[in-house]
Amino acid sequence: MHRRIEDYALIGDEQTAALVGRDGSVDWLCLPRFDSAACFAALLGDEDNGHWRIAPEGADVCTRRSYRPDTLVLDTEWDTAEGSVRVTDLMPQREHAPDLVRVVEGLSGRVRMRSRLQLRFDYGSVVPWMRRSDGHRVAIAGPDSVWLRSEPPVPTWGKNFRTYSEFTVEAGEKVAFVLTWHPSHRPRPPLSDPFESLETSVKDWRAWAAHCRYDGPHRDVVVRSLLTLKALTYAPTGGIVAAPTTSLPEELGGVRNWDYRYCWLRDSTLTLGALLAAGYLEEAEAWRDWLLRAVAGDPSDLQIMYGLSGERRLSEYEIPWLPGYAGSSPVRVGNSAVEQLQLDVYGEVIDSLWLARRSGLPSRPHMWRVQCAMMDFLRVAWRQPDEGIWEIRGPRRHFVYSKVMAWVAADRAVRTLEEDPSLEGDLEGWRAMRDEVHREVCERGFDAGRNTFTQSYGSAELDAALLLIPRVGFLPADDPKVVGTVDAVRAELAPDGLLVRRYSAATNDVDGLPGDEGAFVVCSFWLADALYLTGRTREARELFERLVGLTNDVGLLSEEYDPVAERQLGNFPQAFSHIGLVVSALSLFGVRPAKPPEGGEDPASLEAP
Q: Which helix (H) or strand (E) segment is 363 a member of?
């Protein structure tokens, strides 16, 4: 039986990440980058596909676990009949090569420990050749080389293509394991001191967390979400991956399994706003600069997502030897949605750059030219149908949210010129486009009989993205059309008043896929924001309190939630979910947002001090 998704915790070094189960098993790790092939892939198969477990001999799940406060250092503890023991897991920020450090510490009594390492490169398909060298265990296959050592050395042997270690720890004793990856054609990198790495990591993470400006309710959960976003940042470029995993299902046993180890443009405005408002200007600037590099080029070639360094080719293929999490196949690598036309991303990019300018981030020489080029393309392209925000794999449609974001693009371009007359641009032409898009959306995308905007022109379906209409300033929050839309989405897509579905996947054939999916976590935070904007502050805060309760025992959220089985679904942890949590907390309890377009309050446009 597969562990529940929420049974995992995240560790990482800002270039890749690992998932550690409650039983002390590392079941997912891609080296050397987030988007590299996994050397531990038990998450999507079984132990034979690669894992590394350290636990007391004969023990099952841990007694307790937690992150050390304000860090990404994980402590997992077992109480046994012989005594108590702690395993501390971390991935230090790398200097030469990625290290996975696991420190075993006796707390009481005398506990016999067992380590079982099963390396399987290329997503669990390649068994490496193992040998000894200078007291290390070395695994090599093709381009990959992994070195394992312990300090102090403990008895280690190989059997059935696995590496075992057994040892005993008493109270106060410590044994550290270090697993290091490097390209097989290069010499072994310099050795790091695991105990020093632990001390330095704790210090560094806490120093970073201390910059958080938020001091309201649930600060620990907000800081945990910010730490998670930091962990999902690819430090060399500033890009932020949507999640460190691929193919965790949106429905158990279903086919809605996607690779999220890439950087989505649509996350840009919310991510930038959350980082700026929380006080992380350096990270916000790095994300903005990644965005500018990624979108450079012909605006007609703009993609919805890019690789960690801005790579464009993310070809999708299936891995037949992995059965998938809980039998949910196929397992996919790459994401063919990269080829889709999603007009909303133009609005999100231009909105992000407008926010960056207003927030005082240093400008870049080509930043305005990029926006002008996008507007030249969008003033014609906005009339086209597209695949929409949810990356449907059915026919293109005239999605209302896509049109709204085209309006946002024109609106922010106009506002930029109004705020800085020294810039050149087609002010009157963009104003005319803004008015035309607004008029068409209100005429063709609104169901007057039900008093709600709809998912697409002529459709009766609703869409959770419509909750963002007041946030982006398309209409004031007190407009009857906005209030009616919020009420309709809550009634039809969140029947329990808590968990919001993106759309009715089970009855709506829009996405061209069989089966259903769980509730989309970030959409539930959008509902809380929309309730707040429409004057229902008490309901919004009550909803936020309930949503915080969906985090797992170490404060992490996946992409979706199954309200029937009461378990997390989808890729984990999900940046979008944690961004939603941070933005809602800042709006409802914390930092005052910037003055929004069209009046009212706008939790997306959060300014730095």
A: none
Alpha-carbon 375 to chain mean position: 29
Average pLDDT rounded to a whole number, residues 447-457:
97
Instruction: Decide: 148 and 108 in contact? Cβ < 8 Å.
Output: no
Within 13 Å of residue 23, how many CA atoms lie on the same side as its CB? 17
For residue 383, name the pLDDT band (cuts at 50, 70, 90): very high
Contact predicate 101/181, CB 8 Å: no
Residue 1 pLDDT level (bands cut at 50, 70, 90): low
What is the C-alpha separation between 31 and 42, in angstroms, rounded?
15
Against a cut of 0.90, is the pTM above it? yes
Amino acid at 392: I
Report whether 401 contacts 360 (CB < 8 A): no
pLDDT 10s digits, 113-122: 999 999 999 9
Counting residues of the chain whose pLDDT is more than 70, the rounded percentage is 96
SS (H, E, C) 421-487: CCCCCCHHHHHHHHHHHHHHHHHHCEECCCCEECCECCCCCCCHHHHHCCCCCCCCCCCHHHHHHHH
Q: Residue 89 in 3-state DSSP?
A: strand
Give the SS3 label for residue 585. Answer: helix
Q: Is the pLDDT at 339 greater than 80, yes or no?
A: yes
How many angstroms separate the CA atoms of 115 and 246, rounded?
A: 26
Extract the tokens encoding 94.
Answer: 């790398």
Give CA–CA dist 426/209, Å, rounded: 43
- Gap between the Cα atoms of 609 and 606, Å rounded: 10
Residue 112 pairs in a beta bridge with 168
Model confidence over 178-233: pLDDT tens digits? 999 999 999 888 999 999 999 999 999 999 999 999 999 999 999 999 999 999 99
Q: What is the dihedral of CA 205, 209, 211, 213, to 10 degrees?
A: 170
Nearest to 273 by CA among 196, 187, 200, 354: 354
Q: Which residue has the tokens 């193919």?
A: 247
Residue-averaged pLDDT of the chain: 93
Residues 590, 592, 597, CA angle at the centre, nearest 5°?
Answer: 140
What is the Cα–Cα distance from 482 to 475, expressed in whole angstroms? 7
Length of the chain: 609
H or E element, residue 346: helix 344-358
Residue from 392, 526, 410 nearest 459 by CA: 392
Query: Got the DSSP string for 176-238?
Result: EEEEEEEETTSPPPPPP-HHHHHHHHHHHHHHHHTT----STTHHHHHHHHHHHHHTEETTTT
CA distances from residue 101 to 98, 224, 421, 608 in whole angstroms, order as listed: 10, 21, 55, 36
The confidence score (pLDDT) of residue 597 equals: 47
Amino acid in the structure at residue 234: Y
